[in-house]
Specification:
four-stranded antiparallel beta sheet, Multidrug-efflux Transporter Regulator, Chain: A, Domain 2, single chain, 297 residues
Amino acid sequence: MLNYFSTRDASNILGIKTGRLRYWKRIGLVTPSNLRKGRRCYGFQDLICLKTAQGLVAQGLQATQMRNGVESLKRKFPGFDNYLANKRVYVFGSHAIIRHKDRFIEPQSGQLLFEFDLDDFAEEVEHRIKHFESEKTAEGWFQEGLRYDSSKETYPFALEAYQKAVELDPNFGDAYVNMGNIYYLQELFVDAERCYRLAIACDPDHAKAYFNLGNTLDELHCTQEAGDCFQKSLEKDPNFSDAQYNLAATCEKLTLWDAACTHWKNYLNLDPVGKHADFARKRIKLLQSNLEPRSQK
């Protein structure tokens, strides 16, 4: 189950307006506790706190009263978590008290008593999350994958999202490509190869899928097959400079000197001022100097 939720996600799951969520965050009542890509986001436990706060507001408590209760408990009991996440929360008049380790802790006094069972809240939040997930389209899951695939720590979430995307749309080639990229970055080359081949099966004109498959096959020491993939990539996109570069380097590995020289030149035509341009010029110069004596024999 997902454990990273934006403000908009939390709003959709719990039915709380984003403005109210931002207000609660601003006053310090419930703040996002998880970190993703350097940005704070809500976790499952935060959603429980938000759901509790929503119920307490419905019983007449003010957000500032709840915030004051949180601060009071932290002063009296250092290290005590937000009472909104505790197992039993009671509304006593216009104040909240909690039961913790068979004790009642009363941050503020009051009268009328109501009970909230957070086990029920947790079950409802889980149900709402599952409903939220079930409504997502393949494109929605793909976008979810994009949110997670730039950090090694969140690769599992990205793979899960891309997997859901291809389950909903088995011909979603870009989702397979991105799954392959994650496996490639983890040096799981066999898994990466499988994903890139699935992408090509979905979209035989996917130049990037052929290119990435070529890189993967090169890592698996299948040099000839890698070269074929780079060539296929260029057939699909003749302006793919990286494919020209890799094909030139592959031709050198295969001792195809004339072809290597041609592809280095093709690369320079596509990217004459890129960061690899000077290296390509050196390779051309070296190859031509080696080829000239042979042509004079």
